[in-house]
Amino acid sequence: MASTSDIRNGLCIKFNHDIYKIIEFLHVKPGKGPAFVRTKLKSLTNGKVLENTFSAGHKIDEVRVETHEFQFLYAEGDNYNFMHNETYEQIVLDKAILDAPELLKEGTSVKVIINAETEAPLSVDMPASVVLEVTYSEPGVKGNTSTNATKPATVETGATVNVPLFINEGDKIKIETATGKYMERV
């Protein structure tokens, strides 16, 4: 059993008869009254995100997990195939488990979190950013801008990302996987 002082991003806990992963947390110590921890929890079974407040010292049931490196092979409908980097064992995961499946390129290395007790995959942690090539974007008209003007661009995985007007087809761009936003041209 862990307590609220052990809460950190990425911690997996049992809560309301389900397994949740802590996405965000904030320790709050108001001037009046007891301290508490405000958290954002993501269900690892259905992907729903909920907010919950734990009072300070509250006992939480931690789930023992293992993290393994897997390589994304290919997608087949809503099923995504991954291969373990050391044992070459292949697993098939549902699209709902993935945080940003539209940004997954074949060959990308990801971390798969596996429940140590049941050996069931719980979630997939993407790299912080990915570099993808722009396959289609409207041409930007020079001088037709105001501050921070953007246009939609389609990348090689099929995802649509808002990019600055100077990005053209064939450019490689870095995309933040957590938000799906353009970071920089590579």
Describe the model.
By secondary structure, this protein is mainly β. The strands form three sheets. A six-stranded antiparallel sheet has the order 1-6-2-3-4-5, with no helix packed on it. Strands 9-8-7-10-11 form a five-stranded antiparallel sheet, with no helix packed on it. Strands 14-13-12-15-16 form a five-stranded antiparallel sheet, with no helix packed on it. The chain has no helices and 16 strands. The chain is 0% helix and 54% strand. The chain starts with a strand and ends with a strand.
Largest sheet: 6 strands, antiparallel
Give the strand line-up of the largest sheet: 1-6-2-3-4-5
Average pLDDT: 87
Radius of gyration: 20 Å
Encode the helix/strand succession as letters: EEEEEEEEEEEEEEEE
Main features:
186 residues; mainly beta; six-stranded antiparallel sheet; 0% helix
Quick structural gist:
The chain has 186 residues and is mainly β. The chain contains no helices and 16 strands. It has a six-stranded antiparallel sheet, with no helix packed on it. Strands 9-8-7-10-11 form a five-stranded antiparallel sheet, with no helix packed on it. A five-stranded antiparallel sheet has the order 14-13-12-15-16, with no helix packed on it.
Topology:
Blueprint: E1 2-3, E2 12-15, E3 18-28, E4 36-43, E5 49-55, E6 59-62, E7 65-76, E8 79-84, E9 90-94, E10 109-115, E11 121-125, E12 129-137, E13 150-155, E14 160-164, E15 172-176, E16 181-185
Antiparallel strand pairs: 1-6, 2-3, 2-6, 3-4, 4-5, 7-8, 7-10, 8-9, 10-11, 12-13, 12-15, 13-14, 15-16
